Amino acid sequence: MPDADETPNALGPLRAELVVIRAQLAALSHLPDRLAELHKSVAREQERAAFREEIIDRLHSENQQLRRSEVEAALEPVRAGLYRLYDYARRESDRWALAGKENPDQHDPQSDASLYAMFAGQVGALFAAFAEETIEVLGRTGVEPFDVAKGERYDMALHRPVDTVPVDDPAWDGLVVETVSSGFVRGEQIARRADVVVAQLTGR
Questions:
Q1: CA quadruple 101, 107, 108, 113: dihedral positive or negative?
Q2: Which of 7, 14, 157, 159 has the smallest C-beta neighbourhood within 10 Å, fewest atoms?
């Protein structure tokens, strides 16, 4: 049997190891609090990152909108010139096409009247092709023409009255009787109202 004096000496290393374990456990007791602080810190960083992303997205969107506005502003005078060019080409096309149909000497294709009618028809077709080409160019700037049917109710948002025609029939009062110039739309917005002649009841 070991001596009584040897027992305390044998337990000495165990006591020292227990002291170390207790110290380690005491240090680990603060771990949940530190993990909670770390979680809060990570959450704050995520909020900051999300806020930065939101600002970047908003700045990008505003920059794109500003660029679109600048492009639209630069295109407006170009469109205005193309509108006038299209109106002129279409009017000349109609005028020359009508002249081409008026041939007083249809029995002699070599007469001056027949040759003029043929020439007028060709010029009318040339102006019509030019008008169509102008429409295609306008389409590339984002606008398209819209049709106004005869008998359509006058709408100040779509039509610009350039003249009136007196009528006796109340049913025609306020209706479009002629389109002078086509209107144009850009998406769902009216880029240019159509110039129209509106019927007006006699005596109003």
A1: negative
A2: 157
Predicted model pTM? 0.62
Cross-strand partners of 186 = 189
Query: For residue 1, is pLDDT > 70?
Result: no
Domain range list for the chain = 6-61, 144-204
Burial of 125 (0-12, 13-18, 19+ CB in 10 A): middle
**Per-chain mean pLDDT for the chain:** 84
